[in-house]
Amino acid sequence: MKTTILWDHDGVLVDTEPWYFAATQSAIKPLGVDLEQAAYLADMAHGKSAWERAKAIGASDQDVALHKARRDELYRQYLRTEDIEIEGVLKTLATLAQSFQMAIITTSKRIDFELIHAERQIVDHMSFVLCSGDYPRSKPHPDPYLAGLERFAVSAEETLVVEDSERGLTAAVAAGIDCVVVANAFVRGQDLSKASYFVDSIGELPELLKGL
Hints:
- The protein is of the alpha/beta class.
- The protein folds into two domains: 137 residues, HAD superfamily/HAD-like (Rossmann fold), CATH 3.40.50.1000; 65 residues.
- The chain is built from nine helices and six strands, in the order βαααααβαβαβαββα.
- It has a six-stranded parallel β-sheet, covered by helices on one side.
- It is globular, with a radius of gyration of 17 Å.
């Protein structure tokens, strides 16, 4: 019986992924990289950084650090100004919180996460949040979700992961946890065949989870 839900964040609870890509694309271009979305998603699926492309054509560590900082500035500007809401999130979380303990397991930086949630109520439904730096290795490694299991002191069999991307799905599968994938147009085309379940929207989850 499932007692626990570990939520991915970007692309599942907030629609931030296109804006992170846009910021990266803009910031990396002066280094000679015309970053296309397909290449970015392929790198992401395998846990690679787009900045490796810049280093491969001669960018120094100092150059990369400078332009990463610019990426962070652009991304935070988007977070402050763009619509990143996903319809149905709060209603779904309120429903599921009645039956499940829940946490967010994200690769987001803590500073970005706190900016996103400064005026939102999503985290009110969570027991805890794990961000980048709270576990040894990021997705697609299993470490983030294994850390979630340890924090809750539950087994993989009692747990469900909610994801949208190949990288996150790979992490869940490697941790031995069933994963439901919520459709997300931004990552369309990634290999999601290892998912245990699929839904078209987050609002479908309560009905799906009734039988788990």
